Amino acid sequence: MKRAVVLLSGGLDSATTLAIARNQGYACHCLSLDYGQRHRAELQAAAHMAAALGATAHRTLTLDLSVFGGSALTDKNLAVPTHEQPGEQAGIPITYVPARNTIMLSLALAWAEVLQAQDIFIGANAVDYSGYPDCRPEYISAFEAMANLATKAAVEGRRTAIHSPLITLSKANIIRKGIELGVDYALTVSCYQADDAGRACGVCDSCRLRRKGFAEAGVSDPTRYA
Amino acid sequence: MKRAVVLLSGGLDSATTLAIARNQGYACHCLSLDYGQRHRAELQAAAHMAAALGATAHRTLTLDLSVFGGSALTDKNLAVPTHEQPGEQAGIPITYVPARNTIMLSLALAWAEVLQAQDIFIGANAVDYSGYPDCRPEYISAFEAMANLATKAAVEGRRTAIHSPLITLSKANIIRKGIELGVDYALTVSCYQADDAGRACGVCDSCRLRRKGFAEAGVSDPTRYA
Fold first, then answer.
1. How much is the ipTM here?
2. Fewer beta carbons below 10 Å: N end or C end of chain B?
3. What does the alpha-carbon distance between residue B193 and residue B203 come to, in Å, rounded to a whole number?
4. Contact B92/A147, CB-based, under 8 Å?
5. What pTM was computed for the model?
């Protein structure tokens, strides 16, 4: 059975990505990062998701990115936006965490190397999060090129592939895909400021996108709102 | 004053790199990683070096890479080699930490983004550590290309440069350069298994390379041996 490292945040996108990797027959080693995000419910959701979708292993690394600041997701002095911002689509949201995907993919690469896994899955999506530079296809390709020079595996001729199966899907199509693969979205937490019980605020950007996705997919929204 | 992020391990190479960055006029923000390496003396040496060379800031992030295992530097079940291994030059040493430079450069990139710094310095060296894939010039170039797609700065047209000023220098020439710039190498710890007081074993690969470097540079070796 081929091994893969799957980045798992506890949200809707990474849960769907795990389901896709499992459906492709991978033994999935899931990696979550406790990077100082505002709430813990997301990490608990990741553990539930890994178990529900039959992951082989699940590990959570702790790395306090809040020491750098600069994001509303890690810096308690910056507010999470709760309504459509004027000009928001043109810029990069304050919820962007500097170099987050680069850090997470680097950690996945380290684990993949130890596991001798040649496949890494990430739920990056360029449609809804077009403002996040590290969710673009050209970024993923550049990371893959770098990874194939970075490791022992690369020197020995084994290639590493970075899979981002959701990158061009709309939220509605991600949800349709996940439902088809049996994902229980009630276990996932997307909200940027969920409470300790994992209940969503319903008003942040991530909640709005998620709610709209369920509506467009014609699927009843299983989210627990506060 | 231009800002730079400088990766600082506490060893000879990164100390020299910091001196070079300071000499080029950068306000240096030094980043160390407590990744579960065998000894703490290296991190203390990093703090001393940052102060001695006039760094603007110094932060140490904690990230326990020993959970992945696979390296003699983080896995206590693997022994640090203490003599020339047959065929060692042809392979990748057991002291290689999977994806270490990729992880450290990713963290530097995150901090650089928050600081709006466009320059990152790393003491990677392809001469003595030719067995480490992530110390090769082509790897550094690929990381730089990826970084220039990964960040808000990239989207806004500000380029990030990854500087590896030691990459083609011999250990002797690194030492000559550092002496010229006033580096006090007595403050640095290179040994893979130094004791708590920072005293070197004298027999691991890193100790042997360092000792040979001082001899070739014609500089008396200030290393404190156990």
1. 0.89
2. N
3. 10
4. no
5. 0.90
